[in-house]
Amino acid sequence: MAETDIQELVTEAEWRSAFPVMRQLRTHLDEEAYLDYVRQMTAEGYRLFARLVDGEIVALAGIEIQVNMYYGRHVWVCELVTDSDHRSSGHGLALLRFVEEWADEQGCELVALSSGVQRTDAHRFYEERADMERASYVYKQPLR
C-alpha cells in the first residue's frame, strides 16, 4: 500500500521539487520566476503544503492567512493543484481538508479561494466533492 503524507515545503530545494506540479497550474511561470515569487510570498506569510505518495509530490496547496471585513480571519488558498497523473484519486480533497483543519487550528473562520472561470472541472470539484459554496466573482484590472 502506498504511503501518503502532507508536509510543509520550507526550503528552496523543496520548492524547486514542487515546480513540475505547480507549473501545471501556473503555466506562465518558469522555474526562476516561480522561486522568486515563493521567496517573496513566504516572507509575507505564504505557506506551501504538499501531498506526497511514496515520497513523490502529487498535489500542492499554497495558502496564506488574511483578515478582512468580508470574511474576517480566514485562509486564502492561492494555489491548489494535483498532478495530472494523479487526479481523481482524492489527493486534492485530502489536501483541502488538511488546509481546513490547519486553518481552524490557526483561529480562522473559513477557507476561501478563487478559481478561473475556464476551470469548470475545478468548480465541479469545489462544489460537489469539497462541499464549498460559490460566494462571489473576482474582478481584476491590469495596471501594466
Automatic annotation (TrEMBL):
Superkingdom field: Archaea
GO MF entries: acyltransferase activity, transferring groups other than amino-acyl groups
Pfam families: Acetyltransf_1
Coiled-coil region list: none
Protein name: GNAT family N-acetyltransferase
N-acetyltransferase domain span: 4-144
InterPro entries: Acyl_CoA_acyltransferase (IPR016181), GNAT_dom (IPR000182)
